[in-house]
Design goal:
Number of strands: 12
CATH architecture of the largest domain: 3-Layer(aba) Sandwich
Shape: globular
Number of helices: 12
Order of helices and strands: EHHEHEHEHEEHEHEHEEHEHEHH
Amino acid sequence: MNKQYCVFGNPIVHSLSPLMHNHAFEVLRTKIGFLGSYGRYLLKDPTRLYQTFLDLGLCGANITVPFKEEAYLQSDEVLGIAKKIKAVNTWVLRSGRIYGYNTDAPGFYETIKNLECKKVLILGAGGSAKAIAYILQENHKEVYIVNKTSSRLRALENDFSCSVASDLKNYQYDLVVNATAAGLQNMLPFEEEWLKKILVHAKFAYDLMYGDTPFLRLARELKIQNMDGKNMLIMQGALAFELFCGQEIPEVFSIMQEALL
């Protein structure tokens, strides 16, 4: 039996998720009892997400920027921490109903749990920012948010009790996380001089995008320890794969990592 999966996004051509998932489906075929195939889908109309999922005959999907909040709204049922975050990055079809989950939050935290950081600044206020704000607060971190659109900031402030970094002269943060999609356009998320003032005082810089982004290049220029989102991509993908298969598979992270390497 062949089951179909994909990742929805816009843009989506850069996504490495098919590489990871297809390798895992092939290696683990005997263990999971079916052959899966996983592709990319460029979604232009977010209101068509649910119907497109059904039209493609999918058994599950990942949802990336900018549709995670839309995926939350269109899920038949939302489970786990996604209910609090109100952002969904994984869909699983069971008995004709689409169940929504969030694997971004635990996937992110696994990659930073050993860092010595208490005060965190998140750049951006979309679905990914919500996920990491939630998981950081659950693990007793002091979370601040800055965003160009004030309405999204107010939602995060109200729903997650995050502190809005309205005083942009406060430059003291241990970890600065770029949760915007600016790297996909080869842009910095905020004005360079302000970012320099923030980063020069930080211990760590983290970009949720994977690969070499302008934000990470700036951090390296300032000799700040930094990381991209590749390990988060693998971890959230491994957690999503387990949801697709309905079982825990401890080796799936290393199998997906092997695919990317």
